[in-house]
Design goal:
heterodimer, A: 542 residues, alpha+beta, PmbA/TldD fold, 7-stranded mixed sheet, B: alpha+beta, 6-stranded antiparallel sheet, 6-stranded mixed sheet
């Protein structure tokens, strides 16, 4: 990659952060985003042998009738370290290298992949992808067109990290977890603790027949810990899990967040849950910490705004969307209050879905999904743009094409989707202080949502009763249940940038065969007026 | 269609004896042995275990009456676990050239030396004997892009001819083999195929939706046209559902829904969690509930790899880690719940040794027995109840009672006087398989739902629909 390209892409990345970052600069909370990375790692370069394989695959596909093709050669690496109490349960590493090629033939797609890294194998995969596309084209001619894209030439990109997790010795990682387990076990009442670190490193070069070859490096970390307290007579047990969020960052993220001080708090919460009061079901004002709210955003805004889902492409599995048909909802559906701003992006530093270029050679960007409470746009790939361009006026893809690895078919996947904080400096204490009878929820718990994303039930990890503007006692066994639009329109207060926090998941699932996608969701603390609360400790909840 | 020449890749013998067909997908037994021996030969660890997974996966998806995506891939992966006493670590790689294998073996050794001791690690098992299993079917391995497209085309035609319906569906065949070998002489090999097929028919205006699906090993027995017809009929009959209040109802659950409940129950069958007081099967004051009735006395749930064409050993996939020292352990026919009584729990080798019992391993099949009647018989003998096609988005609520929440999907009907009266809205439900199977009234003959599960439809006298879901 040319030096100037890198400088250009870094500057763009920095610009995107500034949009949210300006509101975050006042962040005093330890929960705010990680310290921004100051020294970016050098991006990878396009390797000549890899370029040859990609060209071979693309040429074979077009030679066999493809009007468009894209191909990727990727090394997908994971490393996991797992412990429970004072033992190691898992140390494992996985490397998978291969080539996948997708061909577009007469309006139909075909895909083929091979682990064999030879020109012959690349050409075979290209021809097979085109043959599969041709077989499908015989079923139904469909007028699919691809939105235009700029040819970027040879480009490269790297995610932001300071310490490559592959540079940290495995023994150090294990010891790090065992030391933290010891802190948890040192808390009276705690009987079990499990902890895991999961690292991902992807080095992938992709090429399209539209003139872009992108070499990219992506590093992600996922720290997990679950602490269980058991009642002395074994009549009850309670766990505190979901303590930390995954991020598109390096080892420094673990070091800064997964600390002995934090473990002490989580352990004491597990013990307190044993004696927490059962919730009285009913309507309450709900104050959601971002560590809980991000998942509600993911499920009730992220999924309904997938355009393929809205049009029935996921009907047999992930489901459809209540937010359809596009002509009746774009620019018309009031999703929430005037102050509700939702953006999709693949540009934020540390975001799990953040990239340089997507699988179709589209450059990462940021765009509004909900503006002033009104739904305005979906998530798109190149083939989807024409389905709604009359309604949005947008002629280009938002860059949401993603494949989980070299052997998987790229399709539309969720970008990072964020709720922007209030302009005013509203704190968590301000929100709780303004609440007379409510419940405050931290961290994600059990969650389940209808296939059209219209009706949901979410739990949490830690619940506090709010009375007269104050956190009083801890509650347990509760979940909130609502309809998506009722819920978001009941949002009556959000925090400022100081409460902004980025949650996320390694395991956003969609497609058949199922593929996982890693995605981040940033949001401030928010309050929802009079939400239905269930007691899940009783069999006939609700 | 073969896209990889394994022989040139692996430098292996040309005409391996034991090859069942001229063009089987995945490594043959001879090839797997040869590759495993090469890896074991490179290792300098005290103990080494290798798992080889190889083969072909293909898929075709359709939606809105067209094929949306389709593809195929071939891969061979080696999971190499190196052990030094109580220390062990694994590396998985698909780089099988000399350099790639050396690097992986060295890497596994290096990780293992650095890993702290795991006091629960046992020495690897020696040679074992396994039940004979027939799990590879050419009918599945030969589902190429044209054949898959033809299945999609017929489903699309069925939906289109039946009115204003759109079909969405998925066909996925896989074919290949799994092998486990270790440095103490164990060698296990299983060639297998499997498929999944499902179709959702939806009214174009979103007023109704119906689903049907199946899975198995042998595609030749599958009447996919019948499944399409069932999904289409459900979509038509489910149009314009009438409201039904949430509450506790008698419910007829079709096999797809029962399969989910049985899976949830099985997920809670860890002996260790029960012994440690962390499970629904912990006895208050210590011990487990083995020997106690937990559900209706007609319920029997068991595992039997040979019955469903699954690998007869642990570590080939499904429950249980491939890199654990349990890999290669024979999975024998085992009854978990017999006539309503908890008969056994899942014992790893470590926990079994600690408790002084035989290890069961983590099963890769689940079979629930049924009774000699059809789904239609279950409906016709129901005075008033709710018929549920399938569940969706099931999540744990309370592990102490195996309480879960989920939704219904793609066809919910009110049954009155033995007949389907009319479609009703979808529901969210909150219930436990223990409670549902505790209130069992009747069962149908079991059917294959997935490659690894066979269960009946059931009628239960109490099923808790906790709220209405407007989704269709």
């Amino acid at each position: 990659m040319e030096r100037r390209d890198f400088v250009k892409s870094s500057a763009l990345t920095a610009g995107a952060i500034a949009l949210v970052g300006s509101r975050l600069s006042a962040a005093g909370s330890a929960h705010a985003g990680p310290t921004p990375v100051t020294s970016m790692p050098a991006p990878p370069a396009v390797d000549a042998a890899t370029r040859d394989l990609l060209m071979e695959a693309l040429d074979a596909a077009t030679g066999a009738g493809a009007g468009y093709a894209d191909a990727r050669v990727g090394l997908y690496r994971t490393r996991r370290v797992g412990t429970r109490e004072r033992r190691v349960t898992n140390v494992s590493e996985s490397d998978s290298l291969g080539l996948g090629v997708r061909a577009f033939v007469s309006g139909s797609w075909g895909f083929a992949a091979t682990r064999e890294m030879s020109r012959e194998a690349a050409a075979r995969a290209g021809r097979e992808a085109a043959a599969i596309g041709a077989a499908n084209a015989r079923v139904e001619k469909s007028p699919v067109t691809l939105a235009p894209v700029e040819p970027y030439g040879e480009v490269s990109w790297s995610s932001s990290y300071e310490v490559d997790p592959w540079d940290v010795p495995i023994g150090d990682k294990v010891q790090y977890l065992l030391d933290l387990n010891e802190v948890a076990l040192g808390t009276e009442g705690v009987s079990f603790v499990s902890s895991e670190l999961h690292f991902v490193k992807i080095e992938v070069t992709s090429a399209t027949t539209d003139g872009t070859i992108a070499a990219q490096r992506i590093i992600r970390v996922n720290p997990q810990m679950s602490i269980t307290a058991v009642a002395p007579d074994r009549s009850d047990f309670q766990s505190r899990g979901a303590v930390l969020e995954p991020a598109g960052r390096g080892w420094e993220y673990i070091r800064d967040r997964m600390t002995p001080e934090a473990v002490e708090v989580w352990a004491s919460e597990a013990v307190q849950k044993l004696s927490a009061a059962a919730v009285e079901p009913g309507l309450y004002d709900l104050v959601l910490h971002p560590s809980n709210l991000w998942l509600t955003i993911h499920e009730s805004i992220g999924h309904p705004t997938e355009l393929d889902r809205a049009l029935g492409y996921e009907a047999n599995y992930a489901g459809t969307s209540f937010l359809a048909p596009p002509s009746r909802v774009i620019g018309r559906t009031r999703y929430g209050p005037e102050f509700m701003q939702i953006v999709g992006e693949r540009t934020s530093q540390g975001g799990l879905a953040t990239i340089g270029w997507d699988e179709e050679g589209v450059k990462a960007e940021e765009w509004p999904l909900i503006e002033n409470g009104i739904f305005v746009d979906y998530q798109t790939t190149r083939e989807q743009v024409a389905w709604i361009s009359d309604l949005t006026g947008i002629q280009r893809s938002h860059g949401c094409s993603h494949a989980q690895n070299w052997s998987s078919i790229p399709f539309q996947r969720m970008p990072n989707i964020n709720l922007l904080p209030a302009q005013a400096d509203v704190t968590l204490e301000d929100v709780i202080g303004a609440t007379d009878r409510g419940i405050y929820v931290e961290s994600r718990g059990s969650y389940s949502i209808g296939q059209q994303r219209y009706h949901f039930q979410f739990g949490g990890q830690v619940f506090w009763e709010i009375r007269g503007g104050k956190k009083t006692r801890m509650l347990r066994d509760l979940a909130y249940q609502a309809r998506t639009l009722d819920f978001w329109n009941a949002m009556d207060m959000i925090g400022g940038a100081g409460t902004y926090y980025v949650g996320g998941s390694f395991y956003d699932g969609k497609g058949q065969p199922g593929q996982v996608n890693a995605v981040s969701h940033g949001c401030p603390v928010a309050r929802f007026h009079q939400i239905n609360i269930l007691n899940t400790g009783r069999r006939r909840a609700g | 269609m073969r896209t990889i020449d394994r022989r040139s890749l692996l430098g292996l013998v040309r005409d391996a004896p034991g090859r069942a067909g001229p063009d089987r997908k995945g490594l043959t037994e001879q090839e797997a042995r040869a590759l495993a021996d090469r890896i074991l030969g490179l290792s300098g660890a005290e103990e080494t275990q290798v798992r080889l997974a190889s083969g072909w996966r293909a898929n075709t998806r359709f939606a809105v009456n067209r094929v949306t995506t389709a593809g195929s891939s071939e891969d061979i992966t080696a999971r190499i676990t190196a052990g030094f006493g109580k220390r062990a670590a694994s590396i998985t790689t698909n780089r099988l050239d000399e350099d790639g294998l050396r690097e992986a073996v060295r890497g596994a050794e290096e990780l293992a030396r650095l890993a702290p001791e795991n006091p629960e690690r046992l020495p690897l098992p020696g040679p074992q004997s396994y039940a004979a299993v027939h799990g590879y079917f050419d009918s599945t391995a030969e589902l190429d892009a044209d054949r898959r497209a033809a299945v999609a085309a017929s489903a699309i035609a069925e939906a289109r001819e039946s009115g204003d319906l759109e079909a969405a569906g998925f066909l996925r065949p896989t074919a290949g083999s799994t092998a486990i070998a270790n440095s103490t002489g164990l060698f296990a090999y299983h060639p297998g195929t499997q498929f999944e097929y499902s179709i959702t028919a939806r009214a174009s205006d979103g007023s109704g939706s119906g689903w049907a699906g199946t899975g198995g090993r042998d595609w030749s027995g599958v009447e996919h046209g019948e499944l399409s017809a069932r999904a289409v009929e459900k979509a038509i009959r489910s149009r314009d559902p009438r409201p039904l209040e949430p509450g506790v109802y008698t419910a007829v659950l079709e096999p797809a829904a029962v399969s989910e409940l049985v899976g949830l129950l099985a997920r809670s069958l860890s002996a260790r969690s029960a012994d440690e007081g962390r499970s629904a099967f912990s006895r208050k004051g210590g011990g487990t509930k083995i020997g106690e009735p937990i559900v209706d006395s007609r319920v029997t749930i068991s595992s039997d790899p040979a019955a469903l064409g699954a690998a007869p050993f642990a570590g080939a996939g499904g429950f249980g880690g491939a890199g654990s020292d349990d890999a290669g352990l024979p999975l024998k026919p085992t009854t978990w719940v017999g006539k309503g009584v908890l008969e056994n729990l899942f014992y790893s080798r470590y926990w079994a040794q600690r408790e002084g019992v035989e290890p069961t391993g983590f099963p890769n099949t689940l079979i629930m027995q049924g009774e000699d009647r059809s789904l239609e018989d279950l409906v016709s003998s129901t005075e008033r109840g709710v018929l549920v096609t399938r569940f969706w988005y099931i999540r744990a609520v309370d592990p102490r009672t195996i309480l879960y929440t989920g939704l219904t999907r793609d066809g919910v009907f009110l049954i009155e006087d033995g007949r389907i009266a009319h479609p009703v809205n979808n529901f969210r439900w909150n219930d436990s398989p223990l409670a549902v199977l505790g209130k069992l009234e009747a069962m149908s003959r079991p059917v294959r739902v997935t490659p690894t599960r066979e269960v009946p439809a059931i009628r239960t006298s109490e099923f808790t629909f906790s709220s209405v879901s407007e989704a269709i």
